[in-house]
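Let us work through a complete example step by step.
Step 1: write down the sequence.
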Amino acid sequence: MAGLGRVQVAEVPEWTYARSKPSKYTFFAALALAGLEDRHIRLNAATQRALLGAPVFGRRVLRVDSKTGMVQVMSSTCFGTDINSGDYPPSIVQFAADQKKACNPGFWGDVYVPAELLQS
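Step 2: predict the structure and record it as tokens.
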């Protein structure tokens, strides 16, 4: 991968999530139908709201692993010389959307995460 700054915003066709309630199921189904799994992408805030109900990834780069279902979120640090990366299971992505929090690698702040979500 050349650099996170070169990753473009992906277009998710509206038909992949039309008439669906924002949730982790809508998010994963729409990305699978759009052929965006196993690729480094960015999603604009409007698309994140339509799929999850909140922009939990912000401008960060993400990659959905089609085999494990984990979402890898990456952000550039130190003027692009280093990358913070975090892997989140679907339950944490949904929890972050419900709490209107961001999946920010290396930082959860004062977010309380129930133990049963960490075991998924």
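Step 3: interpret the result. The chain has one domain: 4-105.
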